[in-house]
Design goal:
189 residues; mainly beta; Elongation Factor Tu (Ef-tu), domain 3; SH3 type barrels; 2 domains; six-stranded mixed beta sheet; 5% helix; elongated
């Protein structure tokens, strides 16, 4: 999943969780028909990325996914229908309900400048441009208009801060330093 924010720099992050091996591009919500097609909720900005794939990795969240050769995909009512080699009936497709459809990180679509994956933003330390430490990005809310970063200061146990992920607020994303610099909007908190 992609997130667009302010200015970027570096990669990695000090003291943060390692990069994931896979990125989720879909969630199996059930079977479609009787021939083993999977109905998949799209979790990527470009659902047509499936045409570039020869295989996908499926598995429950938090578990090692298994590779599955991809026979075909098609759009259907805002979702993707996947046909996997070896998944030929409704019972097998039903057994995959709730599985994440994933791709290896190295097969991810390259991002444009100023775009970040969710895992790169979560855990960043948040500072104001004046040097005030606000806490860490602990969650991301997807509102439709723009993403909102949920900031929590673990030391003070104060209330969560909600920061809109817009260029006027997010001034810098420094992945190498593990920090995000913001300019609070008037009346933001």
């Amino acid at each position: 999943m992609r997130l667009t924010t302010g200015q970027g720099g570096g990669s990695g992050g000090q003291g943060r969780a390692p990069e994931p091996r896979y990125l989720a591009v879909g969630l199996v919500i059930g079977p479609h028909g009787v021939r083993g097609e999977l109905k998949v909720e799209v979790l990527t900005e470009d659902p047509h990325r499936f045409r570039l794939l020869r295989r996908v990795f499926l598995g429950p969240d938090g578990e090692e996914p298994a590779p599955w050769p991809l026979k075909s995909y098609r759009m259907h009512k805002g979702r993707i229908l996947l046909q996997l080699e070896g998944c030929n009936d409704r019972t097998m497709a039903e057994s995959m309900r709730g599985y994440l459809v994933q791709v290896p990180l190295e097969e991810a679509i390259p991002l444009n400048e100023g775009e970040y994956y969710e895992h790169q933003i979560l855990g960043l330390e948040v500072w104001t441009e004046a040097g005030e430490h606000l806490g860490q990005v602990v969650d991301i809310l997807y509102t439709g208009a723009n993403d909102v970063y949920v900031i929590q200061d673990a030391e003070s146990q104060g209330p969560e801060l909600l920061i809109p992920a817009i260029r006027e607020v997010v001034l810098e994303v420094d992945l190498a330093a593990g920090r995000l610099v913001i300019r609070p909007l008037e009346g933001l908190w």
